[in-house]
Amino acid sequence: MTSEMHDRDAWEHRWEQVLRDHPDKLASRAPNQHLLAQTVGLPPGRALDAGCGHGAETLWLATSGWQVTAVDFSPSALEHGRSTAEALGTEVAERIEWVEGDLGTWAPAAGAFDLVNCLYVHVAGSVAEFVTRLAAGVAPGGTLVLVGHRPVDPATGQPTPAAGQVQVSVKDATDVLPADEWDLVVAREQPRSIAGSGVDAVVRAVRHS
What we know:
Layout: H1 3-21, H2 23-28, H3 33-38, E1 46-50, H4 56-63, E2 67-72, H5 75-88, H6 90-93, E3 96-100, E4 113-119, H7 127-135, E5 138-149, H8 170-175, E6 182-191, E7 199-207
Parallel strand pairs: 1-2, 1-4, 2-3, 4-5
Antiparallel strand pairs: 5-7, 6-7
Helix pairs in contact: 1-5
């Protein structure tokens, strides 16, 4: 078994356990505040939720009028998201395409999306290649939102829950978004609201029309 397959199996096991043991917490989890903040004022269009997990952000986008492609490699998480969407009604469910795909290799169609959103994905390979691959899916005038949890809390020097993972950093993202193609609207490290829980790397970029 390759390390990629082992990682995928581990995350699937984790999702199965969370969905079994804490369905109430998932049902009540609000969409990510970074996504809400970085999409204020955007007109609904075509969105990619890359690494959608159980679908909190996907469902929020769909209920806000977006047509969403939701990608994750966990069948359990996708099935939970699909079932939740169906419970919200046909109008919401029909706005979502649930796709089982490994973001280590899966690539969006070039220029297909008005919004590409990727939150806290554990990157198996090169972060630069990963960001470049996702960014290629953004249409002219479209928006790219990337958030990564940094593995060490700079305020304390202690490991965060993302310790041992490779997630998107501000430098990783901005290094591969050239100024002649992108406007960097946000590129910052933002402390989390709970002291000692670390910081998030937050990037919002708009592709030139």
